[in-house]
Amino acid sequence: MDATPASPWQPDRRWADPLIALLATLALLAAGLTLLSKRARAGRPADHASLQGRMMEPLLSAPRLLGTRMPLRGTSAARAQAQLKEPWDRALLSVLAAEDGDLVMGRDLARAPQGPWGDRFRAAWAAAYDHGPLPGGALAPELRERLGHGYAAAMLASRLADRVGGNGEALRTAAREALLLRLAALGAFGLLVTGLGLGGVAVGIYLVATRKAPLPRPLPEWGLSGRAAALVLLTWFLLFFLAGNLAALLMAPFPHVRWLAVPLGYGLHAAGGLALLCRAEGIPFRELWRRLTPPPARRALAWGPAFLALAVAMVMGLALVLGPFLKSDEAPQRELVELLRGLSGWGPTVAMFLVVAGLAPFFEETLFRGFLLPVLARRWSMTWALLGSALLFGAIHLQPLGLPTLSALGLVLGLAMRRTGSVWTAILVHGCWNGAVFILMRTLGG
Question: So where does this one cross the membrane (predicted)?
């Protein structure tokens, strides 16, 4: 603490402006290279069923539980094939088509996966549905994983069990029970989202109606200059890349704990960012936290469910408006799904959950809502400060397809900060949002 300056940072423009330009150039270069790398990875076919395929599978399979044929004919088939273009998504559809009795469609879709595992899948499919030779008995665990461990994988395994004299009916019964549970979970999740969306509309109407009412407390005040704020943000952004790459390099020799690169990298850049922020303002972390979380905390936390509902309503509205214009064959969360698929055991899963739903919201809300929003509001109107911080929050995640959703979430989090004057509300909403996405992806995509 002795090294902490006694007053907020006011850098000299003669050297600060060139440094800001340099850091901004480096940040743009790092962001550009990251986006190019993501695009290259997204262009490669996935080696397993996607999250979208796993989510559609129960809906496409549900009619069989009602004693009807699956809706894989006509327009329904065309719509499913248009949305699911990954090779193993189409393999999943080929099993569902065969279960529906459409072997022509099934054969065509089964051609999608390439490579040795694609050949093994086609051999298993032909043995199960087309009187082909048995490929060695039970369905290989690797094939079940590539199909997503869902209804289609279980049904394919049951047909192969029938061929070798096994108890295929027991497998089908278990598959139907698992499908019912998954449908119930998706139905409950859908009802929860719908309820939150309707509640969010009411919250939005209330906030508009009371927009001129006096607020309980103002936004936190910062003494550092605009140039100092720009240097803090740009340095933090570059630290984000450096910490992530350093953590990945340190964990590279240890494949079994390579997942630790994510919590390690995030912990490094969060600690560095907070230290940088305290140093620039000239205060210890304890004072920083007092400034961002004025009492009573329970009042700020009580607003959390209301703003979570508002976030759901705004994202649902955006989905309705922008859905027809967004490409459905690209997944903005593909990297997260890949990461979650690599987790095995409760330890890594819980650790990653704590990073996604705890550490990330804590640091990001401190930076964006506790720091950036008040700094922007010093020079701009509150409306432009909210929009600017929301757009930067969306852009910083480097997910072009997710930019509208992330920016809408950032706007709601900014409104929460403005309404309560405490970062606790935004942290709670952000944590619930990230936690729900994590659980959904872990359940369906893991």
Answer: 15-36, 179-208, 228-250, 300-326, 346-363, 384-403, 423-441
Which letter does DSSP use for residue 131 in this model? -
Q: Provide the H-helix boundaries in 252-380.
A: 261-281, 285-292, 297-302, 304-322, 334-341, 346-354, 360-367, 373-379
**Into how many domains does the chain fold?**
2
Q: Which residues contact 312 (CB under 8 A, 6 or more apart)?
A: 193, 196, 197, 200
Averaged pLDDT, 289-296: 94
Domain membership flag for residue 197: no
* Closest alpha carbon to 3 in 239, 269, 275: 275
**74 half-sphere exposure, CB direction, 13 A CA radius:** 4
pLDDT tens per residue across span 388-430: 999 999 999 888 888 999 999 999 999 999 999 999 999 999 9
The answer to whether residue 417 sits within a structural domain is yes
Same domain, 111 and 256: no
One domain, residues 265 and 177 = no
On whether the CB atoms of residues 132 and 123 are closer than 8 A, the answer is: yes
Number of H helices, E strands in the chain: 21, 0
pLDDT digits over 144-187, tens only? 888 888 899 999 999 988 888 778 899 889 988 888 888 888 88
Contact by Cβ (8 Å): 222, 288:
no
Residues 267 and 315 grouped into a single domain? yes
